[in-house]
Amino acid sequence: MIVLVLSAAFVSAGPDPVLSAISDQTINEGQAMRISLASTANDTIDITAGGAGSTFRVCQVTSPSGSCPGNANSINVGTTIANISSLSNKAGEFNWTPDFTQAGTYYFNISVADSDSTSNRTLKVTVVDVPPRLGGTGALALGNAAQQKTNPLHDTETARGQNATGSITLSNEGPAPETITSITVKMVPQAGFTESDLKVNFSLPKTALAPGESMTIPVIVRIPEKLDAVSLKLLNPEPVSVGTLEFSAVSATSGAAVKAVTAITLQTDNHLDVIDNVKFTYGGKTKSASNDELVKDVRAGQAVDIEVTVKNTFTERENIDIQDVTVRVTSGTLDIDEEDDLGDISPQDKETVKFTTTIDEDADDNTYDVEVTADGKDEFGARHGERIVIRFEIKRKSHEIEIKGIIVNPPTVACEKEARLTTSIRNSGKNNEKSVVVRVASPDLGFGAMSDPIELDENDEDTASFAVPVPESLPRPANYRITVETYYDTSVKSNSDVALLSVQKCAPAAVQEEEEQLPVKEEKLPVTVITVPPLAQPTNVTPPQQQEKKSLLESPAYLAILGLGYVVVLGGGAALLIKLMRKP
Question: What is the pTM (predicted TM-score) of this model?
Answer without folding.
Answer: 0.65
